[in-house]
Amino acid sequence: MTKPQVLQSQPVHLARRPNFKPSNPNFSSGPCAKRPGWSPDVLAAALLGRSHRSKAGKARIAEVVDRTRAVLGVPDDHRIAIVPASDTGAFEMALWTLLGPRGVDLLAWESFGHTWITDVVKQLKLKDVREHTAPYGQLPDLSQVSPARDVVFTWNGTTSGVRVPDGNWISADRKGLTLCDATSAAFAMDLPWDKLDATTYSWQKVLGGEAQHGILILSPRAVERLESYTPPWPLPKLFRLTKGGRLQEPIFQGETINTPSMLCVEDALDGLKWAEQIGGRSVLARRTQANAAVIAAWVANSSWADFLAEDPRTRSTTSVCLKIVDPWFRALDPAEQFETGRAMAGMLERDGVAYDIAAHRDAPPGLRIWCGATVETADVEALLPWLDWAWDQTRAERSAR
């Protein structure tokens, strides 16, 4: 575990200014912190200037798929593909190719879930849809999901810090498919593969990989849907997973639809090898949980901050979202609240303490701290006194206006 670095100077007029900074100030929720010990040297063997369709290129991509299966524990009968456009591209590929033959239950409790509702209702224009929504900090009533219908949901709401507690609400003998956006849950939370039919995530989250590539994981039930159903809308080349009514198996064997970055492929391999070296997904989850637990202990004693997620059972351990509950703050109008939260985050960024921790623009004003496995617990511990300091400073400065 890395030790926080000692500050060289401490302005005397800030009595509460902490003595230590996090060694790594990268707490962004995406792209996320690189693994401990990462340097550009790990990319030295990248197949730059080589075709991704060369024997060596396909082998490298297939290795990513194989190591992904091993670390995540994906069953052998599930297909794994590397697809373009990050998690967004992967999930839209699932929506546009799988939905249509059944009614759809759409779950949303934060911005990305509402994005998928927009895709299904306004772009695909499906008629038999039911929207189950909840405000930031809460989950919809999962018992309302019908096993006879397809269901679209995020496992972990990255912008709200609210996740589904488990897969028990998904019927084992369901008739519909489950389409799961798992981008900030994969490698940090237990994903029940027997309950998930189309699962997506991106490299830049829990393993800290580079952006623009997505992963699509399909169950046998999803493959059956693909081979028995043709959507009535046009599909761009990037979304075409079948040919002549059959799954294009090479896509799931290292032959990507379009050209991937071999530099990003090498970086993804490095992250997967690191995950294996430290003990696999159980250790990744424990590291994440330890980080979130540090924040939970701090919140329990905070006079001004609380979790945005109301129920501890549905509280994210990766994208930890905090709201400000101080009475002075709550008396501000919404625009002033937004500016206050941004001012706090900006103060910490200027001091090189924490980068990119303001709440998502669509979420209630506050802070969002990434606690995934690549973040060191010592850095989270070092960050927390700075949150108190930034709050005191921001409130004093804005109160004086």
Could you please describe the fold and organization of this structure?
33% of the residues lie in helices and 15% in strands. By secondary structure, it is of the alpha/beta class. The strands form 5 sheets. Strands 3-11-10-9-6-4-5 form a 7-stranded mixed sheet, sandwiched between helices. Strands 14-15-16 form a 3-stranded antiparallel sheet. It has a two-stranded antiparallel ribbon with strand order 1-2. β4, α3 (111-123) and β5 (129-133) form a beta-alpha-beta unit. The longest helix has 23 residues, at 377-399. The radius of gyration is 22 Å and the shape is globular.
Secondary structure layout:
Elements: E1 5-6, E2 20-21, H1 55-72, E3 79-84, H2 86-98, E4 104-108, H3 111-123, E5 129-133, E6 150-154, E7 156-157, E8 162-163, E9 178-181, E10 198-202, E11 213-218, H4 220-228, E12 242-243, E13 246-247, H5 262-278, H6 281-300, E14 305-307, E15 319-324, H7 327-330, H8 334-350, E16 366-370, H9 377-399
Helix pairs in contact: 1-5, 6-9, 8-9
